[in-house]
Amino acid sequence: MNKFDIIKEKETNGANYDLSPDDIIDRLTAWDSMYGVSIDNIDHNRCEVTFDSLPDDLEAFASEIYSFCPDIVDQGYGCIDEMIEMMEESGQPIPEKIMDQIEGVDLSEEDYGLKVLQNVIRKEKRLGFWWD
Q1: I want to staple 113 with a disulfide (CB 3.0 to 4.6 A). Which of 36, 43, 50, 77 is the partner?
Q2: In terms of DSSP H, where are the helices of 11-69?
């Protein structure tokens, strides 16, 4: 039994992106051989991945991650400007973690979600993947 067998057991998939459990395992296995990964919080349409090391080209890696899991930007880091706006309008403070994630990112740029993703990869080495 290897560390990715649980993905088959849970039938983790991104069916809406034509990703089978085997596709997810193939990608994670490739990343594991290059960077070392551990996985947890696995369910039928999600998993969390922690990277032991990172590639030098985080821009290319963020693009690869986005291709593998578009929701991470389209429903996540690419919506952070809207979340901040709602917090500001309601008088809620912006959490330090979010401020750290957006550090140095111009939220008015079209591709700011990929830049936030790069920050998260670099600073946290941990990502939640989901496909819904």
Answers
A1: 77
A2: 21-35, 58-68
Residue ranges per structural domain of the chain: 5-130
Phi/psi at 45 (nearest 5 deg)? -135, 20
Report whether 92 contacts 33 (CB < 8 A). Answer: no
pLDDT of 132: 86
Which of the four pLDDT bands, split at 50, 70 and 90, describes residue 14?
A: very high
Tell me what the mean pLDDT of segment 98-109 comes to: 96
Distance of alpha carbon 84 from alpha carbon 91, whole angstroms: 10
Q: What separation in angstroms does the CA of 95 have from each of 65, 104, 106, 121, 124?
A: 25, 16, 18, 18, 16
The two structure tokens encoding residue 112: 């700011």
Can you tell me the distance from the alpha carbon of 82 to that of 100, in angstroms, rounded to the nearest whole number?
Answer: 17
pTM for the predicted model, two decimal places: 0.93
